[in-house]
Design brief:
The structure holds two protein chains of two kinds. Chain A is an all-alpha fold. Helix content of chain A is 81%, strand content 0%. The longest helix of chain A is centred in the middle third of the chain and has 28 residues, at 32-59. The radius of gyration of chain A is 15 Å and the shape is elongated. In chain B, helix 2 (14-40) runs antiparallel to helix 3 (45-67), helix 3 (45-67) runs antiparallel to helix 4 and helix 4 (70-96) packs antiparallel against helix 5. The chains are: A mainly alpha, B mainly alpha.
Chain lengths: 120, 139
Amino acid sequence: MVHPLDTILLIAALICAVWSLVLLMLSRPVGKRWLLGALLLIELALLVQAVLGVVQLATTHRHVSGVTFVGYLIGSLLILPAAAWWAITEKSRWGVGVLLVGCLVIPVIIVRMNQVWSGV
Amino acid sequence: MSDPGLREATRSGPGRVLIAVYAVFALAATARSAVQIATKFSDAPLAYVLSAVAAVVYIVATVCFTRGSRTSRQVATVSCTVELIGVLAVGTASVLAPSAFPDQTVWSVYGDGYGFIPVVLPILGLLWIRRSAKVPVQV
């Protein structure tokens, strides 16, 4: 898989998850813009990972479940934009709760993607 | 009858997060069951049909909570109840007769493959329908 980018992405998403949780518990959306900026960077890195992933899939000689692998790559790109849209349109503090959910989904997808890549 | 207050009460606040989680499960269960049914249906037909049923239940809940009309709240009440019965029935069956489930479903062992969120989600959904009916809308 795309090392070490996937590890960096996994850690970055978890940091943003903790950040979202703190904002949720502070009950005021302080620094929400910075959080959204960080999520934009993660999204761009996910895009790079998706491109690299498809290239790797096309060039590998091992048998990898291609449909599932590409499915996870595409899925990984949908989560954060959808979460950001659903969070921005919420006025209350629960908007960052949506970002928290989105941030927690990214590591799950990355772990599953690695399992698919290694044939688990 | 559309009721903007009830709609907002349903899809705002904690309901916002609930819908987000339901949407994630709708996407995950739909994609998973589509791949399973398309590529290896004969391996474990029962498990894959149950995955598809779960996917439908999650889609219905996501759409109904997002719409938040009186009717869709009633549909959500039914679908959350079906979801709870489904996860308890499939969970219990998969523990008692694991051989009937050669491959995982979303609801196997009460959703242990998904951090047990599948067994908690319908309970939260039903509680949220009750609670959002009472809370006056804050503007």
